[in-house]
Amino acid sequence: MSTPPGTAPGTVPLRPFWRRRPPARWRGGGRLDGRTRALWRRPMAVISITVILVWLLAAALAPVLPGPGPLAQDAGRFEAPSGTHWFGTDELGRDVFSRVLYGARTSLPLAVMLVALSLVAGTVLGALAGYFRGWVDSVLMRLCDLLFAFPGIVLAMVVTAVLGPSVTNAMLALVIISWPWYARIVRGLVISIGDAEYVSARRLLGVSARRTLVEDVLPNIAGPVLVLATLDLGGAILLLSGLSFLGLGAQPPAAEWGLMVSSGTQYFQFWWVSTFPGLAIFSVVLAFNCLGDTLRDVFDPQTSFTRAPSAGAGGTAPDKTGGSAVTP
Amino acid sequence: MTASGVTGRRRAAHPLARLLVRRLGAMVLLLLGISLVTFVLTSLVPGDPARAALGPVQGEDEAAVAAWNSRNGLDKPIPVRYLVYLSNLLRGDLGVSQQTGTPVLDDLIAYIPATAELAIISVLLASLIGVGLGVAAALRRDTLLDQVLRVVSLGGVSVPVFWLGLIVLYLGFFVFDLFPGGGRIDPLAIPPAEITHLYTLDALFAGDLAATGAALHHLALPAAVLAAYNIGYIARFTRTAVLEVINHDYVRAAHAKGLPARTVVRRYVLRAALPSMIQILGFAFAGVLTGAVLIEAIFSWPGIGGYAYRAAVSLDLPAITGVTMFVAVVYISVNFVIDVLYGVIDPRIRAG
Amino acid sequence: MLTVAGLTVAVPTPNGPANVVRGVDLEVRAGEVFGVAGESGSGKTMTFLALLGLLPAGSRVTGEAVFDGRDLLALSPAERRRVRGRDIAMVFQDPMTSLHPMLTVGAQLTDHVRAHLAMGRREAREHAAALLADVRIPDPHGALRSYPHQFSGGMRQRIAIAVALACRPKLIIADEPTTALDVTVQAGLLRLLDELRLQQGLTIVLITHDLGVMSALAQRVSVFHEGRIVETGTRQQVLCEPRHPYTAGLLAALPPA
To answer: Which of A149, A234, A326 sits opposite B158 (nearest CB)?
Structure first.
């Protein structure tokens, strides 16, 4: 691999830190510059951002939109989709369209919270491991390895079953299986950026290690970690709805997408009961994944594959950042 | 340094053995770690297991609670309890399922073959299609085909499997009646003589082609649904792996030798991408096993996934933990095999 | 034997096509070592990759390049593939990356031989062992079963030369063949190349930015600058009495011997 221009051997950047060039890999990450504009030229990004905005709007406006609401049982049971009930009605005569709209109010904020908590926990622990190295690093990384050994949703099942089924517990269980991904990537970035020459140069000028961590290393991590988080949002929604589908997340009569699909399994012939909530999951997850994929392309064409989010299938994915050293 | 071929080959066996030993050691440590995690989760976290087990009436009786605690070793210090837990595990005692009333291990053994059959077929299917799509996308990078395949693979990793299972079953069975509505074999048919417990193979061994066909017919929908995620995932991964090697000098050198383009791709590009593609198999298996938890119930597939689903719905903790441990062990073992394969495939690892 | 006229090359980049070669004329005579000098990015490598059809997809090439009476640029991709490796072979800069790390030396030496010359497996192996002996690899039969990583950089470059020689080509294009090697190994490799040329009646195009290497081997030299040839002549003319200011600058930039 060729040396990125920002860290070419022999070049010691003597600029003040506010004018320094971040490593080539992430130059421009997180800033409004040419790349952000490039994002708008990609139809896939525009479409997925639109879809996400529509869902956010639906979540925000659901209570003020006209309609029977998610819990009102004022129609016949299992009415097929029609002008009055666009998505039909379910086994209790509730309007499926209203419930799908309200479902966004559960899934989206919970997914954001799940990703935010995993990100904060992972970043703090990963940065500690990368900064202190030594035994702190070993212990934390072995813990990550251990958690990686459990395929995603299965461990979350045990945790929720122990804690008691509820949406909050489902989210906490998923934080436990998600943070190691962030920790490992942040650790790798802290180590590689901490060893970059412009950081060494600042250290040689007498700047403390802690200050370089805060001023040089962490700002450069923000870009990749945020891209990873976007990629992860889709996976988070899938996992949360999967746990609810298993009865370990949201409890009836809540309007939650996974739970709604699950109730549809018992009323097979009334396809609309589960089809529409499932489509809601699919559309929003696909939008987040497309957006994340494009973000990665635009900001980091080198690593066009880090980690696909653990999806409804609960699979966890390898990340190239921590990948094998022998790949040619 | 010039290594003559002969000494180079003789030295090669040794590092591979070392790799094996090292990986085995790591595997044992991981298994210990897994038992520690499940111990903490199931034995320490629940507040009052005695009262939970004895129920509200007996739970008020202090003597009964103390007796239950001592019978189950709960009055001992935590490290001792862990050792007891561990020795139980080693003897195959995973507890008794509250739902079925039988030992969890027996349940697992009864349910494993169905899931194994489903998982193997599904991973095979996903690897074939996923690798094909990934290579096609990489070779036609940035063309319309690449874009279409990108959306298709992202769709595969975005679709909730439990929903896809329902839709596919609704269309394939209920509407068009092309596929059976569930199970491994027709309820009235006699299952083939059991050798491997995999119906497709057993039927083949018995020379019963009709039964093989029936078993495959039953497998088709659940295997395809489970493959959806992996197809998308493997395709994306393969595309990246191929793009990573396709610009290497040795690929250009192979073209400069005047080899046909197809030979270059097969011999040079895929060969170099193979090690990283092998790694993905472990994740494919993990994805299928956990996906099975979500969809086996839908397809009335008598495997551990459906067992785990029923255990989850009824909060049957010993059964859930048993499945978790089983899946983790399979996952670790698959990755062990992959690591060793990796060492066999990449000569640079073999020679140290 | 090779006459290039009016060659232009445009390769695609994220910011649109870049004209990397802007009208190159040159003539390589049979049996000589033709040196091509210039800094990196001057278009010297692109020129020859274009002749062989090895440019990245989406590149545009115009002009003509007559080799043995045929215009290489007018050939169909399949015909050009049959020229590559058999009539014109190439040696790349970095022997660490130009050999496949997971295929044995024997496999890499024989696959194109069997494709081009329709040799049997056994015959191809004997041929490959003889080639390794030609480039002075000790224990050729053992080496056939070894992997590239078991050899040093200099040995690997010898193997790469053996790969290039395998189908008895008329012309070898050596792109910075010694740049990635230690100075001590360079001399031996250059001597080997020259001996092989004399033995087998090869023609060699030597692409290098190292004027020292150039003066040791090349009989005639072209100097590339920004996609054009600024000066062509014999070694003495170009290196001792440069007419173009860019060549003079290049020479002035050499460290004093």
So the answer is: A234
